[in-house]
Fold:
Amino acid sequence: MVVFALAGLWLCWGTSFPAMRVMAQTLPPLSASGAAFLAAGAVLVLLRPTTLRGLSFRQFATAASIGICLLGAQGTVALAERTTFAGTAALVVAALPLWVTVLNAVLGERPTRAGLLRVLIGFSGVALLTGTQASTWTFVVAAAGFVWAIGTVAAARTTNLPGPWASTAVQLLSGGTLLLVVGAGEAIDRPTAVSWLALGYLALVDSLAGFGLYTWLLRTTSAALVSTYAYAVPVLASLISVLFMKEPLRPIMLAGAVLIVTSVAAEVSARKPRTRTANTRT
Structure:
């Protein structure tokens, strides 16, 4: 069951980047992402009506601020994917654990020499990828990954978060509301049925199914094993983008991908993951 659940998690989150690109082609990416998150959050509350009962204002505010960082960043990636390849976006965002290492170092957690080497190797891969598809939006994806890392570090360090189910519901609802407000002025230009399907897929598979598998795995097996999605997801997203969306695969892009995935895999393996985590993709 653990093997099947882990494979399912990889599929849920590995297909989200191609799905975001399909959705963003004819649907307003910020508003559509916000609607997907709101729908997923509403379903979570309906499935467990007592989820938000008993939350203090401080717990709610903490979870909401983290959700704004995490899901705001994901909505920004969806916006960037109108012009940026899904595979490139997935690999640039995959540098997230490296950003976390940098932020932890700024906050006083002294990195090892090996840790610094992993960061340098990983970010050299990001530089290669951004160079192969150099545009403002590629750098926007990198910035979104940094904001995502801020939310991740905040989630790992705070003691005010409620349980995983309540945290995720608040994060989805708050992040979804923010994206709907920010994307209120987006134009809708004849959305296709495929984009609508991608939107439903993101709400049901990326948010709901992915969260369910992630939570079950954290309670069933080791956090170290669950953390393998950090380098499995970008590889899977890139393969899907190349094979099914006909995105180009250049040798320099492949080199950048190898550098990022190798450094992230080494970083995840070197960590001592916490057993209590928020619904963050680190």
Q: What stands out?
A: Residues 193-220 form the longest helix (28 residues). The chain has 13 helices and no strands.
